[in-house]
Amino acid sequence: MSPNEILEWFNQVSIDKTWSFEGCKPSDTGKWTHGYHRYPAKFIPQLVERLMDEYINNGTASVNDPFMGCGTTVVSAISRGFHASGTDINKVAHLVTGAKATAIRPDYLEKKVKQFLSQISCFEEELSFFPVSQVQPHIPEKHLERIDYWFAEAVRDGLGKILTLIRHENDLVVQSFFLVAFSHVLKTCSIWSQGSTKPTRDLKKRPTLPCDAIKRHLLKMLKGNSQFYDIVPACVKDKPNSFLNIQVGSAKVQPVRDDSVDLIVSSSPYVTSYEYADLHQLSTLWLDLADDLKEYRKEFIGTSYKQYEGKPLSSQIASDIVTEMLPKSRKKAKEIEAFFIDMQEVFDESFRILRPGGRCCYVIGNTRLKGVDILNAEAFAESLQESGFKLDRLIKREIPLKILPQKRDEKTGRFASKDKADSEAYPTEYIVIGLKE
Ligand SMILES: C[S@@+](CC[C@H](N)C(=O)[O-])C[C@H]1O[C@@H](n2cnc3c(N)ncnc32)[C@H](O)[C@@H]1O
Description:
Layout: H1 3-12, H2 26-29, H3 45-55, E1 62-65, H4 72-79, E2 83-88, H5 91-100, H6 106-119, E3 122-123, E4 128-129, H7 144-150, H8 153-167, H9 172-189, H10 210-231, H11 234-238, H12 240-243, E5 244-248, E6 261-266, H13 276-279, H14 281-286, H15 293-298, H16 316-325, H17 330-353, E7 354-364, E8 367-369, E9 372-374, H18 376-387, E10 390-398, E11 423-425, E12 428-435
Parallel strand pairs: 1-2, 1-6, 2-5, 6-7
Antiparallel strand pairs: 3-4, 7-12, 8-9, 8-11, 10-12
This protein binds S-adenosylmethionine.
């Protein structure tokens, strides 16, 4: 299709209400291990499950997500006994996906959690520990200053002691399970402003006590693991590693064989939307996942910290967006250009790993920035074609209002009124489906 035909195709498609999954309750979207960790712009599992229903017809299929995030695609694939692979540049995403995709024997895990909780029974007023008050808090020395920026001293020491106990856990699968709980509670235990998608402090906030927060969350995760354990096929439970191939790394170079994947279900980062490295910085600091946060975030696609000069942009639709943005903001135009160049390389990689007859499904919404329509979805469609895909299907779906990242103030990341907002997302998104013939 020519760029104009693609634009026309998008104009003609109407919303398919059956893809809104309107009746889904939080207990449905957060079922099994899906509720282990908050993650910005995560899928609902029902969307992945429906795509697998429609496109997979063999029991030994292989499913991939180059931007796996907290692992919704990977977990959904594992739940059906499919092989699952994925990458994410975010080390927190790798930790979370690994734990979510691993079903642990419930009676064994329950014993481990009980032992752990008995060790961290805490005196709430003092935030000291019994019977392990002598435990040395594990606080990464080189990040102390940043940690102190976000946490009160007593809370910091409480978290440090919890982390010491977690590090003493010899079973690494259980240790990861605990680390995910630890990572999840960091925001509520800090003075990170809850309603903001940017790292902003709320000096009036009353953080939750670490022991309370981790206890509550571990008990919730325990239930999720039991449900997941019940549905994961025995063959996966016996040999989890032969079904799961997840890596910290770039979506542009996945450790996956040529022509080996049946279905890709993914949602990329958005240009100039969430800064994932910044958003997960509390976990990154505490778990010591990056020496230099500034360098680390340059690897993220869609970040405002990276620009390319001189690399060609093959999509005409993307080039037109960049040209329209240039007079408004050269910096933003360059960020958008870098984003679409990166995505072209990701689509090339998707094409390489899919088997002939396989499909990739990219979930993406459009945005409006400084008065310019950023037609991500249309540009993705054109880029998929450039990579060799046949444009197979386009689904337009409504995003439930409660999860729509719309109208945000650029500086604070808080929700803003329409006239004050610098950027805006539409209440719909697309699933652009490419077929490798
Ligand atoms: C929209 S999120 C994916 C959410 C996922 N669908 C889920 O359900 O959790 C996009 C992800 O892309 C990741 N990402 C950004 N740049 C990347 C890169 N260069 N390679 C791989 N992943 C990257 C981000 O860390 C983020 O986790």
